[in-house]
Amino acid sequence: MIKRKEEEKILDVNAAMQGSxxxxxxxxxxxxxxxxxxxxxxxxxxxxxxxxxxxxxxxENIAIAGQxxxxxxxxxxxxxxxxxxxxxxxxxxxxxxEEGATFNGRCKMVEEKMSLPELADYLSIEEEKIKDxxxxxxxxxxxxxxxxxxxxxxxxxxxxxxR
Length: 163
Known about the structure:
alpha/beta; Arc Repressor Mutant, subunit A; eight-stranded parallel sheet
């Protein structure tokens, strides 16, 4: 039996847009035109080589090949392709900058922490089940006041050894 690889679905924005875009569900988004405003996305965000973006961006995995000004917060990784020209403040746990990319701004390297809702989504499980695991010391967690935080690397190690 031959399995066909499911074709990757990408939402390609090749127009001039202004405003706020929020994608609550994971999506592969490519911006190829102009965008001004705020962008929040889950999944993969690609800013194409001909794109001109002036925005505050929050996302998971972000790859930039075009021009970007603003602030970027990535929960997983940012990649600046060789054609990227960015003037931004970046906050991310991982960054990759290809030779030829232009980066002006600041970069703050942060730990990969997930909130309870993010972990529930990541594991595709109900938050109450995770709270039960935390209360019984079955999953590694940290408390920040009333908030639970989960280190992605520790959670992935827990998944591979204990789950």
